[in-house]
Each structure stands twice: as structure tokens, then as C-alpha cells.
Amino acid sequence: MVLSAQSAIAQALTGGAVVVDCSELGKLALTGDEAAAALSAVVTNDVEALAIGEGLYAAVLTSKGGMLGDLRVLRAADELLLDTQRSALQAVFDVIRHGLLGHRAELHKRTLECGLLRLAGPQARELAGVGTLPDAEHATMPATVGGCAVLAVATDVGVDLLCAAADTAAVHMALVDAGALAAGEDALEQLRIERGRPRFGVDITAGVIPQEAGLNERAVSFTKGCYVGQETVARLHYKGRPNRHLRGLRLSGTAAAGTPVVLEDREVGTLTSVTDSPVFGPIGLALLRREAEPGMTVAVGDATATVVDLPF
């Protein structure tokens, strides 16, 4: 029997692995003996605590605590590697560059120089040949795929492979030859939404405070030194009550991203991401006002939805 493309992807995600070229993500590098200290002063998480081979997720904020972007930080032997959504790249670059003043550190652009392939599925590590990669998210190890040097990065859904841009096609071909199914970003969107992970520029935009987006646990350290926007983040965490929360929506039917979410004739947010999950059915993400609490029913266009905590 010949599977449809959607069925083949679903099968690969549950029993094999898909490979997606995510090289369009913005990529930067920091070098210098004060690189970690400089970066830690402008992001929400504790970069200075990272050992070689470790990484973390963090946000870059305005002085009032609103997000300008999010990023992953990986500590390699001689540099810090950063990646971020392309829509946030310039803002993240500008903040970091300004934060380097007075530090022995240099910022480098790597978007065009580096490729990034994302493997998702239970066989991701096996197909990439990185079975000894530590389980901790963002852990890294050097490896070779298709005769090309790569940096393998543990993710919540599999493995990312960073390589020289010129090697991207060869690494991709080697993964497909090993059994990975080539797919587009839609395949990853399903997993992202099921896990309740917001995407900057889609579910969260400039000005959202990390706690509103449910990012405190993953992206914020409350024990590290000072950083831009810390006062607002700390005050809201210890004494405040967010006006909005990122929530999941279990939909009764089809609804499009951008559709208003209505509670008792009052608009409380907008559906930002949606997918037809083979596990949960139609689901979506929305940043909702706090009165739309888990368990409540809301209207989303012609459909209704139950508000739920994340992940689904």
C-alpha cells in the first residue's frame, strides 16, 4: 500500500525519523574569554554556568521585560553558538553587540556559513549515529555524518545537526540514505504544538513577558546575576499575576490561525498555531487573557474549544 505524504510523515514521527532543513534560522557565534559573562548580562538564563558540551534556552528582553526574541545557546570548546528565529535575528544581534562594550568578546554572523538539519522521531539518534549523545536537552557532541563534520545537539524531539553550509546537502542525503524521511517544517510544527512550545514571531511577539508565555522554567534563571529586564521578570514572578497566559485549545473542529478566541462575547485572545494532531485531534495555541481559565469553553470562529494547560 502506498502511503500519502501526511501518513508517511506521521509514521516516521512515531516509528522512525524525519529530517528537515532548518538552515534559515538565524545563527551567531561569540568568542573571547569574556563571551559568557557578556552574554549572560543580556539574556535571561545563566550562560556562565554552562560547561563545554552543554546549552540552554533564553530570551532577550527590553528594559521593561518584554521579549525581543528567544535563542538557544550552546557552549563549544572555543565559542558560544547561538541560534534564533530569523525574524528576531536583528534585534538579538543588536542587543548582544551593545552588551559586548567593555568586554573581551567578539560577535560573529553565522547564518549563511552554517547549515542546520533537524531530525525528529524515535530513531533520530540512531540514524545520525549519535547514540552516545547525552539525553539532556541542548547537550552537544561532535560527530561525522556522510563524511562531514557536524555538531549534534539534543532536542526535545530528536537531534539537530550543525554543519558547514557547503556540507548541508551531503549530510541531508546521508540521513535520507540511512532511512530518515525528508519533510518540510509543517512536520515539526505538529510536534511543537503538541508539546505546547511557543514560536517567537507566531505565538509570542515583541513585548510579551516570559512568564506570560510559560517560559520561566525553561528560559529564566532567578539565581544568576543581573540582566536587562530582570526587575520586571522577577517582580512578576514573586509578587505579580500575569494578565495573559499561553494556553492550549482542544478544538471541536477546523479553525484557522488568526481567528479570535471569544469568551462570553468578549475577545480574550487569538489562535496563533493550529494542527490536526493524530494523538489529540485538532488543537492550537493562544495567548489568552487570564479570565479564560483551563476547563472553560471558548468560541474560535465556527468551532468551540476547551482551554487546557500545556503541554497537551
UniProtKB/TrEMBL annotation:
Keywords: Mitochondrion, Transit peptide. Pfam families: GCV_T, GCV_T_C. InterPro entries: GcvT/YgfZ_C, GcvT_C, GCVT_N, TrmE/GcvT-like, YgfZ/GCV_T_CS, YgfZ/GcvT. It is found in: Mitochondrion. One of its GO terms (biological process) is iron-sulfur cluster assembly. Coiled coil: none annotated. The keyword Mitochondrion applies. Residues 11-223 form the GCVT N-terminal domain. Residues 244-312 form the Aminomethyltransferase C-terminal domain. GO terms for cellular component: mitochondrion. PANTHER family: TRANSFERASE CAF17, MITOCHONDRIAL-RELATED. This is Unannotated protein. The lineage of its organism: unclassified sequences, metagenomes, ecological metagenomes.
